[in-house]
Amino acid sequence: MFNRIFAIAKKEMRQLKRDTRMLFIVFFFPVVLLAIFGYAINFDVHHIKIAVYDQDRSEYTRDYVSGLISSEYFDLITYIDNDDQIKKLLDEKIVQAVVVFPKDMSRKLLSKQEVKIQFLVDGVDGTSANVIQNYVNAATYSYSLQLTKEYLAVTGKKIYVPVDLQPRFWFNPDLQSTRFLIPGLMGMILIITAVISISLSIVREKERGTIEQINVSPLSSIEFILGKTIPYIVISLINATIVLLAGYILFDIVIKGNILLLLFGTFAFLFAALSLGIFISTISDSQQVAFQAANVTSLLPSLILSGFIFPIESMPVAIQILTNITPAKFYIVILRAILLRGAGISAFWDQLIYLGVFGLVFIALATAVDKKSKNK
Amino acid sequence: MKTIFQFIIKELLQVKRDKKMLVVIFMAPILQLIFLGYAANMDVNIIHTTIYDQDKTSTSRDFVKRFEQSGHFKLDYYADNYDEVTDLLNEGKTLVAIVIPKDFEKKINRRETAPLQTLFEGSDGNKASIALGYIQGIATKFSQGIVAETKDKLGMKISLSGSLIPEVRVWYNPEMKTRNYMVPGILGLILMISTISLMSMAVVREREIGTLEQLIVTPIKNYQLILGKLIPFTLIGFVVLIIVMVIMTQWFGIVVRGNKLFLLFTALLFVLSNLGIGLFISTVSKTQQQAMMASVFAIMMPMIYLSGFAFPIENMPQVVQYITYIIPLKYFIIIIRGIVLKGIGFSSLWLETLILFGMGATLLIFSSLRFSKKIE
Fold first, then answer.
1. Which residues of A touch B101 (CB under 8 A)?
2. pLDDT tens for residues B331-363?
3. Residues of B in contact with A196 (CB under 8 A)
4. What residue ranges do the domains of chain B occupy?
5. Which of A312, B239, B260, B324 has its CA 20 to 30 A from that of A264?
6. According to CATH, what is the number of the domain B47-154?
7. CB contact under 8 A, A147 and B177
8. pLDDT class of B158 with cuts at 50, 70, 90
9. Buried b (16+ CB within 10 A) or exposed e, B171-191
10. Which of A117-131, A152-166, B97-111 has the lowest mean pLDDT?
11. Any A CB within 8 A of B103 CB
């Protein structure tokens, strides 16, 4: 039995080796993509483009604006002098926020009143808008506090703040999002290589008719599938190593946890992904259908349903259940735990079980479908 | 003319007969848009929180209650010691732990400042900073309440000094919901994936099976062959386009604020540029496997990540921003978001429309020339 599996694996390896374009795509692109996207993907909102509508033109407003733009969070694009310009600037995305200082700001401040500074924020991207809102609130409160302090210093009193918030950010003190996103990117790259390549390589034999020859040979379908899968496990493992290495070299992602656990988790993930690929290959007759099915089950789901970008708990319950369709979901939890927090198996043992169950379910489904189609 | 027409009919018949293919072409976009549309939601509305209340007084309980009432926080755990807090953060079970110090009430009564330690599991930097914003809001309000109380007790009516208050108004999307922003983007992604894969596979398939050779030896001219391939897929792409538009407006109830016809026109330009890309892929690949891997890794993934669909382009490094200029999806997403969410039209979007048109035309002409050279 092992001889036959080995023979198939060898044949598949040889076929792959000859297809240099394919090998090039499989090994070269993941690294390039990781390199480009790793730099490109982040939600860190910096350099918010602002316009200032200063109706007061006082020392206060100049002071406030120079405070804003001296941080890396805000870039002053332009000053405006009437209301109509606001709409045009926001409509055409020239700025993301407009700061409006009221006419009597300095007069009110001097007479110890409260002054409202208006911020008009482009809310089309809700997440960025939320962050911008936090920034301008913080900037305004701190400037206001500074004014109060200056005033009190003159009168010789001390300021009273009842609660002093002291935030500490563990694992990621600078609150960068890139490190959080890279595990998701790794999961996505690996699942696509695994699912698409295995499903297509099996369906190709169907489409070209070579599977008939295999059917009449003494090879059982399990041996055939196993033999087909081995080369892709090897390729995927090499791929995973390359991607992890690239993550380390390019983005300084050190494996904080146990490397053997990481390997084991990756193995479980590949098992699940490949069994999904095998299942797809049994339900499709042509590579076209297989490709579309692989796309539907792995390309966008591993991006959108996996918790990579969008928090799963914010989804409706029905969709939360559906997220189990992509093994990337479980793998991302494992990767983040090991890579970012250095957590042990207690943080993700359940994910390993899910991956195992996922793999077994799809293998079982594939066997069932395969038997049915053979009996026809 | 008649030849082309017959060719188109042949192509459409082929699609019609392949039941599985028919399902994937039309059902996949529908299901994907519906499911992914619900999933793509970055609103942070459930923050898993741990409270470590060392004080256990009415003041600290009052403070904790404000977190419950805000609606953003889910108080999952009440810890009794630091080890528990550390474990919860390490295992990623809680996003933030709020530590209320022992002498919280005493200090506040004595009008001293009470430090409030908040520990974040910061690996998701974006989520942590949004959570921090909410916590700051609550702490500031709480502080202001106490200051006001003290002032009342001391009989002070007016504030000690002038102060500034930010007043943020969010335009276009006052609730800062992310769904309305994401669904049009996902529509673009789905449209891109289905049209590119359809086109690239169709031609390579004929080559792989060998029917392309048969077509070449018939008296059909090159341009007839190309048009015969392009027109049916444009038709199919247009039908898919209409379907996804209907789902966006009817199912998700997203109101198109701008001109619907203009939106449809630009979407058609986008579909044409995708078909051009698909045709190009088919000229550089020998097998369907290659075509698929190339289209996923070299075209679709970059388009997804660099289009600004989820990751803001402004945040990317300058070099990567230059790459985004050649991504048709980027322009389409700017256009569709502008029309749908802001209600702007050609006067603001003429540049993007023109670029999309130019790209579509160039890609189609270039790929057709390459294709016709290839078959000679």
1. none
2. 999 999 989 988 888 888 899 999 999 999 999
3. 292-293, 296
4. 14-41+177-375, 47-154
5. A312
6. 3.40.1710.10
7. no
8. very low
9. bbbeebebbbbbbbbbbbbbb
10. A152-166
11. no
